[in-house]
Amino acid sequence: MTEGTAQLVEHLRSLGPVVVAFSGGVDSTYLAVAATAALGEDALCVTASSASLAGTEEAAARDLATTQGLHHRVVRTDELSDPRYVANGADRCAWCKTHLMDALGPIAAERGATVLLGVNVDDLGDHRPGQEAAAARGARFPLVDLGMTKDQIRAESAVLGLPTADKPSSPCLASRLPYGTPVTMSRLRSVERAEQALRALGFSDLRVRHHGDVALVEVPLEELDGAVARREAIIAACQQAGFLFCALDLEGLGSGRLNRVLG
Q1: Phi, psi (rounded to 5 degrees) for 215
Q2: Are strands 245-248 and 71-76 parallel, antiparallel or unpaired?
Q3: Given 22, 56, 91, 251, which residue has the most CB atoms within 10 angstroms?
């Protein structure tokens, strides 16, 4: 165990029983494994199953929980029943985290535990209203407490042999919809089907942005030439997912791209 992970484990012990919001991504997996090392069964890792979580991501989280020996539970959240979330305003993430805390809060209360989220310091610079909503409900961000960046978390995960060390980031499916486009099951499923098909073509790190009839595909800059070479397969994948047209974003893959409209 490296010094960084040892410090995190010690910090988690000081928090007592915890409930970790576990999506199976880089940050939450590292946090969940460290919390389990620190607290054993006093660390409950909970995956929130919702329409905006791709089915492959939920399955991966379940598998990780088993292989890493996590004390794990899956709960259902239903953000699509909330018109504030469905409206997809700039505060959408706040309502998402409100529903998450509605699900995790009672579980934590029963256990006398603190809810933990896998937020790192790199996340603090973008528009993230969900973090404020979770913090207001008592959630803690241990990775931020220790000043850990995404690169540090990946490096520590690699030392621990975690399969998520080099896993591409995979924010929720709703993040592919421009603000103001209502979040619906059909739109989420179209994005999910398109991204799954493109991963089957070999594009592991990507986004499919939902712009009505148009699927705007983002891949890393170094893969743009390969995407153009396989344009017919990409177009077919997007059309089979329900889009009429397909475009390739020449800027390449970018996190938080849709936040530009917020100024």
Answers
A1: -95, 115
A2: unpaired
A3: 22
